[in-house]
Amino acid sequence: MYVRSLTVYLVRQGTLDDYVYLEHGAHYAIGALSLILLVTIQYEINEIVTGLVGVVLIGASFWSSVRRNRALRSPS
């Protein structure tokens, strides 16, 4: 429920327009977590690994968005 509320809030505030790669990172994280779920049928994967995969993908997409915004603002 929290993630949904946060997503709705970010959409209404226009944050996803400012950080263009954030939505893609969320989709990649969902895909990676679904693959991990399939792998856990056969093998045990630590919850820390599962959590870090999502955090790293979303963090990398956020950082890419910040770098893009800085590059667009800097005079060339």
Molecular structure report:
By secondary structure, the protein is mostly helical. The chain has one domain. It is built from four helices and no strands. The longest helix is centred in the C-terminal third of the chain and has 27 residues, at about 45-75.
Task: For the structure shown, list the relevant keywords.
elongated; 76 residues; single chain; 4 helices; 0% strand; mainly alpha
Taken from the alpha-carbon principal axes, the silhouette is elongated
Decide which structural class fits the backbone. mainly alpha
- How helical, in percent, are the residues? over 70%
For this entry, what is the oligomeric state of its chains?
Answer: single chain
**SS elements, strand count:** 0
Estimated share of beta-strand residues: under 5%
Span from first to last CA? 44 Å
What is the mean pLDDT? 88
Q: Which consecutive residue ranges, at least 5 long each, have pLDDT under 50?
A: none
Describe the largest sheet. Answer: none
What is the tally of helical segments?
Answer: 4
How many separate domains make up the residues?
1
Estimated radius of gyration: 15 Å
**H/E topology pattern:** HHHH
What's this entry about, in short?
By secondary structure, the chain is mainly α.
Topology:
Layout: H1 2-13, H2 15-18, H3 22-39, H4 47-73
